[in-house]
Give the backbone structure.
Amino acid sequence: MLRYAVVRLLQGIVVIFLVSIATFVIMQLAPGNPVDIMIGEAQVTQEQIDAITRKWGLDRPWYEQYGTWLLNVVQGDFGQSVIRTGVPVREMLLEAAPMTVRLNLLALAVAAMVAVPAGILASVKRNSLFDYASMLGATLGVALPNYWVGLMLIILFSLQLGWLPPFGSESWRGYILPVMVLAVGEMAVLARLTRGAMMEVLGQDYITTARAKGLRYGVVIRRHAVRNALLPVVTILGYRLAFVLSGTIVVETVFAWPGIGRLFIDSVYRLDYQVVQAIVLLLSTIVVLGNLLTDLAYAYVDPRIRYD
Amino acid sequence: MATQTTQASLDQAATVPALAPLSERDRARQTELQRSWRRFRRYRPGLVGLTFILGLFLVAIFAGPIAPHAPNAVQTRLRGDAPTREYPLGNDSVGRDVLSRIIYGTRVALMVGLGATAIAVTIGVVVGATAGYFGGRVDAVLSRVVDALMAFPTLALLITLAAVLGPSLVTVVIAIGTTVWASYARVVRADVLSLRERDYITAARATGAGHARIVVRHMLPNVLGPIIVLASLAVGNIIILESALSFLGLGVQPPAASWGGMLADGRAYIRTYPHIAIAPGIVISLTVLAFNLLGDGLRDAIDPRQRI
């Protein structure tokens, strides 16, 4: 177990290293140079341009720039925004991150509260009207582009009914629509997973045994089936981090939500290299760590799983 | 599901003799393709999906004759007009016919969906087969690359690539194709890894077959099934990615008609002309749904073991 954990951790570090190189190289391919972007329309002398170039280390070869950057990142310094001159990237991230985390945790909670009971009920009442309806809903839910769901909710609840603000995060009412949008996608996946896992468990011999010894059906479902079925469901949530983070980018843009996703899009539009690099690296690191923790948690919780 | 399968085989057992008893020779004459098609036909939603997709292809090919108006014809006096008899889905923010633009947008969706899938499958098969077949260090290196790619939230990587390379139809196809192949590589690698130890591979090697011949002639045909299933499920996902990129202004550039781009227009004018945002989203959802249903049907037909 310890050996496995160490190997996986080392693999994770290699992966994050590869990710950081890839990110850096992609940003080097960008047309135009950041000095021009910073100067904009202003009239400047060659000396001023040189000064800016030297200040940001843009005159050195890319691997030196990468090395400097990586060293700083490891120490928690993500550099400074090229566009919003002088603002440390770390500050921008720390400001935006809680908004994104809060939004996604709420969405996940809502999705789980709806999807897990629905999936369990669908598996217990297999081939019933409820089963078909919830699985039809799940199939539709996966096919809907989340940003479009967002637009439709804005039209219905903000513009037609006037109940909720179309964007903004000042009051709790601003949370409702983006949370709903993010929840819809996760709900569909979760409900399918739960139903599938329950079906598998319900076919096991120990379920038949529990019934045969006279336990009531409800007790068998609650104590024997659900507990075993939810383990794979919970762990697969860890593997879905990459999808969740992809989803939050567009949804935050639709609702003008001041989180990591919108900061990312804004920075991409303005080619703010430092911020884009930092965010991509941050998101990928979160995904790698999430997967790693999921693997370890799985191995810890389920003693049947052994890794060599 | 278990009961369903038995039910299906019972049905088959009941109907087959009634139609015409198949002799052993006739059964042998049925190709695997015919048998798969028979299994596929039994899954109604899959047939519906296939029909819808064939319809989309016809619309894309004959967009010119079908579209009631020119997709880029600007009619300023019709700006944001609600649906009328002549313009069944209304007009967009500069007065172009929404229906005609949706019809032309089919081309972009299918080109990106199929083009990117083709690129992704090709890279995935080559990388996966190489890693699985050679194992050892080759596998370790390629697997880390795959891990690194899977660690990126797909959309973040796509947005960065599109912004850096300059958004266009070609960029979108290549960016998506070179980003989403990692999951294919994983599947192919695992399958090839398990095939490597089979007796018939040893036999092939004993007859003097080289690496390339063993992989291409003896292994790939065996992993084709899962690949086809994964690919058909991926097309829907890729169409959503493309529409999200276009929605963010990083996909196919205006004035070319794309569904995601139309939704961006819908978002910009959501207060004044909310109808613009509705139809393109419905079309995207139906298309994605159709490809997902086709994928489910193909999974049942080609790879009955994978049924959930």
About this structure: The longest helix of chain B spans residues 98-134. Residues 274 and 305 of chain B are 46 Å apart (CA to CA). Residues 1-18 of chain B have pLDDT under 50 and may be disordered. Chain B touches chain A through 49 residues (CB under 8 Å).
